[in-house]
C-alpha cells in the first residue's frame, strides 16, 4: 500500500496497468490494494488515457479534497505550520518564532493547528507530521540533537496527540526534504541524497525509493564526516565557520560540498544529489565544479548535483507524503 500511494502521488494521473508495472505486481493485486482507497473516494478515476488498441484505460489520481493534513516545520527557530491537501499542495500556512519556553512555543503551535483545522469545513484531517532537526527515539519518544531548546525534554508525540486528538508522526527534516525532492524528480530513480545547508547542516538519504535511517536513525548525519585528518576538523566544524563568516569564497563552498558528495559516493555509490537551504548562494556554476571534483577523484564516474527548487517546498511536500503513507497504509 505504501509504495502504491507513492507511485500514484508521483505519477498521477496513472493507469492500473502502469501501476502494476512500476510495482512489479499483477493487475489483480493493484485492484485489491486500490479498493479501500476508491471506496473512500481518496483515489478517483478521473479521466481516460490513450488506448493501445482496446478500450482506453481509466486514469487514477488522488482526490485533493478527500482529506487534509497539517505539517509543522519545527526544524529551526522560524516555525511554519501548514495545511496541505492530498495532492501535496499547500492550502494555507502560518508562521511564528520559537519562544524561550518550549511549552509556550508548543501552545502557539497547537493554537495555529486548531485555526487551520477550521479551514477544512469539516473534511477529514489525516493527522499531523512534525519535521524536527534532530532524531526521535521511537522506543522512548525522546528527541535528541534538536535546534529547538527544551524539545529534548518533551514527549512530543504524546503532547500533541493529547492536545489535538490526531494521529502524529515525527521525522527528521532532512529526511522529509529528501523524500519531497524524490517526489518532485521527473525521472525515475531508486536512490538519491539530499544535502541541507540552512540553520544547521544535515543530510537525507533515499535508498530503494524509501527513507533510509540506519540502525539508530542517524543515517545522513554528514556533519560528522572528517574534513581534515591533520586537525580532525569535521565537515560540521567547517560549515559552522563558513556560515558565520561574511567573506567565504566559492572555492571553500566547492571543497565543502565535494568532500560531502565524495564520501557519500564512496560508501553508497549514489549518483543523484540535491542541495537545499539558504545558508549560501548555490548556483549551477558552483555545482558543476563539485561534479567535476568528484569525477576527478572517483574513477571518472559522473554524479549529478542540482539545486533544490523552492516551489513546491520539498520539506512540506515530503512531510505530507510521509503523513499520507503512514495513515492511509492502515486502511
From TrEMBL:
Family note: Belongs to the ROK (NagC/XylR) family.
CDD domains hit by this protein: ASKHA_ATPase_ROK (cd23763)
Organism: Pseudothermotoga hypogea
SUPFAM superfamilies the UniProt entry points to: Actin-like ATPase domain (SSF53067), Winged helix' DNA-binding domain (SSF46785)
Gene3D superfamilies: 3.30.420.40, Winged helix-like DNA-binding domain superfamily/Winged helix DNA-binding domain
Protein name: ROK family transcriptional regulator
Superkingdom of origin organism: Bacteria
Membrane-crossing segments per the record: none
Lineage: Bacteria, Thermotogati, Thermotogota, Thermotogae, Thermotogales
Amino acid at each position: 500500500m505504501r509504495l502504491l500511494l507513492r507511485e500514484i502521488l508521483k505519477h498521477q494521473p496513472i493507469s492500473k496497468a502502469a501501476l502494476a508495472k512500476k510495482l512489479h505486481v499483477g493487475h489483480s493485486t493493484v485492484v485489491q490494494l486500490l479498493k479501500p482507497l476508491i471506496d473512500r473516494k481518496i483515489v478517483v478515476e478521473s479521466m481516460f488515457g490513450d488506448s493501445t488498441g482496446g478500450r482506453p484505460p481509466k486514469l487514477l489520481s488522488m482526490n485533493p479534497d478527500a482529506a487534509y493534513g497539517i505539517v509543522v516545520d519545527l526544524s529551526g527557530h522560524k516555525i511554519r505550520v501548514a495545511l496541505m491537501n492530498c495532492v501535496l499542495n499547500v492550502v494555507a500556512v502560518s508562521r511564528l518564532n520559537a519562544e524561550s519556553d518550549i511549552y509556550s512555543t508548543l501552545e502557539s503551535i497547537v493554537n495555529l493547528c486548531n485555526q487551520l483545522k477550521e479551514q477544512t469545513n469539516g473534511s477529514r484531517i489525516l493527522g499531523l507530521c512534525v519535521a524536527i532537526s534532530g532524531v526521535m527515539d521511537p522506543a522512548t519518544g525522546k528527541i535528541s540533537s534538536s535546534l529547538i531548546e527544551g524539545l529534548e525534554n518533551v514527549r512530543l508525540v504524546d503532547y500533541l496527540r493529547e492536545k489535538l486528538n490526531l494521529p502524529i508522526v515525527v521525522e527528521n527534516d532532512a529526511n522529509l526534504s529528501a523524500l519531497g525532492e524524490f517526489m518532485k524528480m521527473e525521472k525515475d530513480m531508486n536512490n538519491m541524497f539530499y544535502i541541507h545547508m540552512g540553520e544547521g547542516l544535515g543530510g537525507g538519504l533515499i535508498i530503494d525509493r524509501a527513507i533510509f535511517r540506519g540502525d539508530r536513525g542517524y543515517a545522513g548525519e554528514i556533519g560528522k564526516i572528517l574534513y581534515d585528518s591533520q586537525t580532525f576538523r569535521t565537515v560540521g566544524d567547517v560549515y559552522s565557520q563558513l556560515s558565520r563568516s561574511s567573506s567565504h569564497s566559492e572555492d571553500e563552498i566547492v571543497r565543502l560540498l565535494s568532500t560531502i558528495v565524495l564520501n557519500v559516493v564512496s560508501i553508497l555509490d549514489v549518483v543523484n544529489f540535491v542541495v537545499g537551504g539558504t545558508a549560501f548562494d548555490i548556483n549551477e556554476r558552483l555545482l558543476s565544479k563539485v561534479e567535476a571534483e568528484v569525477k576527478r577523484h572517483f574513477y571518472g564516474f559522473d554524479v549529478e548535483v542540482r539545486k533544490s527548487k523552492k516551489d513546491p517546498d520539498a520539506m512540506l511536500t515530503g512531510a505530507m507524503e510521509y503523513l499520507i503513507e503512514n495513515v492511509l497504509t492502515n486502511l
